[in-house]
Amino acid sequence: MSFITWQYLLFLPLVLIIYWHLPGRWRLWLLLAASYIFYGCWDVRFLALVMTTTAIDYICALSIEGKRMAAGRVLLLALLPAAWLSGCSLFLPAAGIHLVIITVAAALGLAFVAGHELIWRLGGENRSRSFLILSVVFCLSILGFFKYFGFFVDSARTMLEVLGLQTNRVLLNIILPVGISFYTFQSLGYVIDVYRGVSPACSSLLTFATFDAFFPQMVAGPIERGRHLIPQLEQPRAFAPEYLHDGVRLILVGFFKKVFVADNCAILANYVFDPKTPLNGYWAVLGALAFAFQIYGDFSGYTDIARGSAKLLGIDLVVNFRFPYFARNPSDFWGRWHISLSTWFRDYLYIPLGGNRGSKWETVRNLAITMLLAGLWHGASWIFVLWGAYHGVLLILYRVVPALRSLGDENASSRLRGVLAVTLMWILTLAGWAIFRSPNLHELGAWLAALGHWQTALALPWASSSLWLLIHVAPLIFLQLLTWKYRDETNLSRLAWPVRGVVYALMVLMIVSSTAQDTEFIYFQF
Predict the structure, then answer these.
(1) SS3 category, 463
(2) Which of 473, 469, 440, 421 is nearest to 285 (CA)?
(3) What's the pLDDT at 526?
(4) Alpha carbon distances (Å) from 414 to 36, 102, 411, 424, 426
(5) If you average pLDDT over residues 180-192, what whole number do you get?
(6) Closest CA to 258 of 8, 14, 497, 17
(7) Residue 513 half-sphere exposure, CB side, CA atoms within 13 Å?
(8) Is it the case that residue 519 has pLDDT exceeding 80?
(9) pLDDT of the residue at 170
(10) For residue 396, what pLDDT band results from cuts at 50, 70 and 90?
(11) DSSP alpha helices (H): ranges in 178-225?
């Protein structure tokens, strides 16, 4: 179920009405059921993967703290995904769940139970570490199989054919479960925090399952930390008017960014990056600009709607975007763009690798590894690996080149230097988005080649398309200028009420008047 559908516009109010009329832990049961319905609307089969992640990380986190669960209960939880698939095969035959799929799910559950019992029997000082490894291996194996199996097999096949070895292309037809990277990383972060002792293990399976599948942020973030979201789920609360005001405001801003900005910019971006479109330098730049605003409006809009939906339930989700196109250097950009993922990679990969505590070249190595994996996280494609490598190079250059480091210094007081720094970072970010949006390496080459062809006469279609882009981007820029001093992209509550009312009315008008076709949120594919 997508946010931009009439089903969600009926689903959310229904959940809210029931939620605020239920007592105590009944609210958690409602949220868990609503989350599973929300996710199951895409494909009920993949709820088994959510259940698998939940069962594995719930058991491993308790085990890390030395709390041993009865073997029978461990077996029951581990086989729950297989039982779910069996039920789907009986009652939903059209789902296409065959015996082999159920058998694999059961075998995976039994393997986890065997590993769990073996670690407890062997004991030793490294028991907690072993349970952490058990969680990481199982969860990343599931993520890797569904997300990267075809990528690595296809790459190996291509390499063998380059060497003159013929291969038969036999690939499984694997569908990418929506949001698998987001809920896997959220769950893994929780287990790692328990291992580090910065977050207690959640003793309630109901609470943890709700945390793992919380519907507003499940499929595209923000990636929450257990120590932030779990206490909010457990905390009793009464309805407050600010929940309604803040929630509706966030949702309205999110719909504006998605429907009016992103979906209209997508028309132009899709045209430019269509392999059939002949390009010159003007069109290439215009396409990159359109995609930059499309992906920002799309992803930050999703986050705003997610935060607004959660706020209506009295729950605060972390801020995921903070004026990213005003960044002065690459590090500043990643502190403003997809903040929950950036901090995830920082805390669970970059810092454990050594961060910037070692020599200059060790820091360079750590940055390169982190950004390559961050690129690969976005998808099974060499384009995403290249995009990650590109941003890794930018981070390294701004660290080792004195002129860039001085220009990007966030503490520099010179206004001119600040403008130059933001402008340069904006150009570099556009180049990165061109890499990200290109369908493949060949089309990226075509985009780069187009930058060498600048006709002196501007064709009318290009000029009219530029005006189209400006019409749909200018309101977003105006909104950001209104909220800039509050350091919050959606904070309109401090404006005078007449101004605030006009802004809200204009956003509603732009949303309902938009003629662009609704497009799926870009980050659903990740």
Answers:
(1) helix
(2) 469
(3) 64
(4) 52, 63, 9, 15, 18
(5) 93
(6) 8
(7) 7
(8) no
(9) 47
(10) very high
(11) 180-196, 205-213
Torsion sign over Cα 407, 409, 415, 420: positive
Q: What is the pLDDT of residue 173?
A: 54
User: With 60 as the cut, is the pLDDT of residue 191 above it?
Assistant: yes
For residues 298 and 262, the answer to whether their CB atoms sit within 8 Å is yes
330 in Cβ contact with 395 (< 8 Å): yes
Mean pLDDT of the 43-55 span? 90
Q: 415 falls in which pLDDT band (50, 70, 90)?
A: confident
Active site residue 378: yes
* Residue among 268, 302, 222 at smallest CA distance from 473: 268
Among 101, 110, 186, which residue's Cα sits nearest to residue 145? 101
What's the pLDDT score for residue 484?
83
Q: What's the rounded Cα separation, in Å, for the pair 211 and 214?
A: 5
What is the four-CA torsion angle of 428, 430, 436, 440, rounded to 10 degrees? Answer: -100
Distance CA 219, CA 424 (A): 33
**Structure tokens of 27?**
């609210």
- In this predicted structure, what is the pLDDT of residue 262? 93
Go through the chain and tell me how many residues it has. 526
Sign of CA dihedral 308, 215, 475, 448: positive
If you average pLDDT over every residue of the chain, what do you get?
87
Of the pLDDT bands very low, low, confident and very high (cuts 50, 70, 90), residue 189 is very high
Domain map of the chain by residue range? 6-234, 243-328+408-525
3-state class of 97 per DSSP? Answer: coil
Would you say residue 405 has pLDDT above 90?
no
Tokens representing residue 389 in the block:
């490598």
What pLDDT is recorded for position 146? 83
Q: How many CA atoms lie within 13 A of 378 on its CB side?
A: 23
Find, among 318, 346, 327, 302, the residue nearest to 426 by Cα: 327
User: Cα torsion at 202, 208, 214, 217 (round to 10°)?
Assistant: 50
Which tokens hold the place of 477?
A: 């820029």
**Which H, E and C letters describe 209-243, residue by residue?**
HHHHHCCCCCCCCCCCCHHHHHHHHHCCCCCCHHH
Lowest average pLDDT, out of 105-114, 282-291, 494-503, goes to 494-503
Q: What is the pTM of this model?
A: 0.91
Q: Select which of 378, 442, 453, 472 is catalytic.
A: 378
CB atoms within 10 A of CB 236: 9
CA-to-CA separations, 287 to 248, 265, 267, 272, 294, in angstroms, rounded: 32, 9, 10, 5, 10
Q: Report the alpha-carbon distance of residue 92 to residue 156 in Å, rounded.
A: 37
